[in-house]
């Protein structure tokens, strides 16, 4: 009884106490930014510990005892304001204020912007206020989710997946050809002759501030757009000087469990080895060793970064940032099997019971950013990035090979070394020419060099007494050298002019016009040296792990084997001439945008015009005399974007545009690229597609860390391009305009939620996020169209198909627990992140063969990042916890045939960092 009385007394006291309190509330805005909301500003009662921060809408609320106080309002780079207030019990007083920047601290205002651009809350604010429909993911979120490269970063946004085993991404079910990549708004060349876009895995997240993904077209972008544009915004450091050192290690469970992890001798450990075609390759045997070298499959990483700002006067400032890092890892595919050349009846020409791929990969990244702020109106930035990545791999297939190993006693081994170097140089400028006008410009010069030096392949048949080399076809055993160089110059310039000034000193209209141009040249050459044992030595027993005993100068001089290219042996005058193709592409585009705000509705009307010229010439084994092809196109591309502000927290957006999709150089060159299980050949008759794009999106921002959005989208594509199998003796794959039309329709949903906030300072909180995308794709397949428009014969198995790369369902989910202590100098952030995609088409079936389909799977990662104090941090990451079996099947009418299967294993990594 006494306990109940005490309880009710305390409850009554608490209620009485709370009822006697008063409330101070209000909204803070930015006077220098047309009175936009000012999030994350400081609100404090002077002389007390009572305070808070404004939310994403600039709003704040304080509940205090009655009395007289001085309210302090402040923000970095802005003048502090003190306002006396009198709080009355059970009443609410509203104090709203527009803060202006301090004249002597104008440079510090940029500090606020730069820091916020990496934060999830600030990027959500940008997304809310922007007229364009875009998604962004910043350095803070990437760190929390354990993401270390840009390819993985973009898959954490809605509707985007990555092709397994590569850095190629699919946006809303549309693959490489439909997407584009830029850095700070300027284009980046591809490092792969088969791809339009650069492998995003080579970009470390250390160099970026955030990644922006445009899935809705606007006329400032190049018109070669249907899926999306990924823009890598490089780090632009401003603030106090710092120096940070990282060191780490990683291990793959499959790689460490290999009995003997061995790769071909030759390439060095740092990925910079340059291997050239040896002298006199047809008359002397000067090639590198084919022996294997054992490795300890333990990856490592090291990095150093630093930055500092220098005051050069009252308004001038120089900001410098630089980073250098090197990382390596070992990977292995286990429990693998593979099939090649499967007919519609399930007859298999290559049936490999075991398949394995082990690799050693390196990535060296360096970047420097120099920003010079002359005054509050003029700023210039210079970015230079050098990236060198390499991959050394050994791929093995054992089993049935028709006409070579009919008893299932075949072995194919392919050793490959790839090295790609990318050099990016950019100069960017921003100039405020007055209250109404602004000039932005940028220029870049990029160079890429991609080498595949000394790829080796050998095919064996195991006899009772040992292995013998196959001699059925001259290319069965070969060494292959490939070089790609590409240079690209690009320029952007745009001019903004504001008009129709309103009573509150804001402008309702803005006119933007500008120019984009890009000019690139590509030179590609490939040489293959085929080795075949002469008649009397075709039964010679060899050791697959010591082929140097057979392939050497003495045996070559004795006539045990011969060497030739596709043009012939040493007796042919031009036998050493490589296969080549060269490409030139010029795009000149001009655009005009008109933006106008009608109270809650903002509309942007855009019109872009482009002239596109593309030329490809070649001299290859398919056309030894050489040939060329030209593509010319003039495109007028209208677009409209609308944003309707339903209220302070909700927007409704609409977008519609016309774009196009260009074929790539290699797709139009008569060049053959042979892999173990497939052969690809170009099509000179390939031409561009036209695309029509539609988006409708509703979004809500409940709190500074929360988002709810729902999107409906659709795309209609005329003359879509696909990879298909053409009628040939080797079932080659080519690139074809497969039908008259195709379309994609779907919906996306995203939800970010702060589940629990355990204290008012956000020092302990549990948050979660989920995004999902569902789409339906369909395209017309016309055998008659292909036969009429090309020199190839194709008989489609079906008259309709999904788009290649299209998954019906994409899903990303994560949950994070943050715990901070010692005034946020120490912290622990743990995250579980899950990714899933459903079945997707890899290649369209022909000649009664079904589509090749990558089967669905999900991936679960665990990330723990801790700051032990303000200087020392430690990270621990486990990726691919579920370790699913990854399958590719051919969906024949008689049943699915599994053509590829393997597991990747788990990846454990630990990293230490220290910041001075």
UniProtKB/TrEMBL annotation:
One of its GO terms (cellular component) is cell outer membrane. Keywords: Cell outer membrane, Membrane, Receptor, Signal, TonB box. It comes from the Bacteria. It is found in: Cell outer membrane. Pfam families: CarbopepD_reg_2, Plug, TonB_dep_Rec_b-barrel. This is TonB-dependent Receptor Plug Domain. Gene3D superfamilies: Carboxypeptidase-like, regulatory domain, TonB-dependent receptor, beta-barrel domain, TonB-dependent receptor, plug domain. Residues 131-228 form the TonB-dependent receptor plug domain. It comes from Flavobacterium xanthum. InterPro entries: Beta-barrel_TonB (IPR000531), Beta-barrel_TonB_sf (IPR036942), CarboxyPept-like_regulatory (IPR008969), Plug_dom (IPR012910), Plug_dom_sf (IPR037066).
